[in-house]
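Bit of a strange request maybe. I'm writing a small parser for structure token strings and I need a real example to test against, not something I typed by hand. Could someone generate the tokens for this chain?
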Amino acid sequence: MKVAVVGATGLVGTQMMRVLEERKFPVTEFIPVASEKSVGKKVTFKGKEYTVVGMQDAINMKPQLAIFSAGGGTSKTWAPKFAEAGITVVDNSSAWRMEPDIKLVVPEVNAHVLTKDDKIIANPNCSTIQMVVALVGVHKAYQIRRIVVSTYQSVTGTGKKAVDQLMNERKGISGDMAYPHKIDMNALPHIDVFLDNGYTKEEMKMVNETRKIMEDDTIQVTATTVRIPVIGGHSEAVNVEFEKDYELADVKKILENTSGVIVMDDPKNNVYPMPIVSHNRDEVFVGRLRRDESQPKTLNMWIVSDNLRKGAATNAVQIAEYLVKNSLI
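Reply from user aminoacidic:
Good idea to test on real output. This should exercise your parser:
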């Protein structure tokens, strides 16, 4: 399997290479790809040094698979060119997610939608991925009517510039600003751009992507997304209203049997998910399970996952693994 990683020098691209290594994905030839300014740089994969190549050179090398993490503009321009050359693209940007004929996939939830004809496959938004992994089992059991989600998102979701801003502020050093405000010792209710409806693009991604992945347009979703001075993972407070009532013990059992989920729910002993626990892990951690006492058939839960791993790199590699396992590539 000849594999290209597009955006190999970025935060997520680096994680993708690490995940491909760790999960022993069957790479027989590796092609690191990046923008013109990074062409010629060196990256290391499986202990071997590789030289970064440009887009067209990568297409000419005819990989079977290209995993993209190079931004929406690059994906819009280059993913179709890779696809036209017969290369299957798994794209981590927001460019293709809501296109009607492009599959938006979280393997634990909806890998069954994939076919051999899918040449561009979209990787969902990080905050959506962890939420739907945690909700897929309880949705099957009780039918979700409405989700209210508030996120507490790591600066790594913005990229290296944001991490540098946080660390500079912590040290009292002035430098480039990724955000319009200070992030250290602060919380910004502002992720991506504001839209005409007053929501941010990130919030509307969670609304629209959840319905598409869960294959259910009746699910009502409202979101508030917040950036916090944390490195390691995104956290979410999720309030879920069901059509059917539930027993808390049954919910816990469903979650314990949900692929990719680890339940950490023993608050009396201070056991609950935190970003520091999820860092460099591929699982989605769920805890603080409790009944919403203000209305019936409603559950409160706390969901945490490493946004660079399951929220991006790992999910993309899992899609590729499914394609290989089912001879779809």
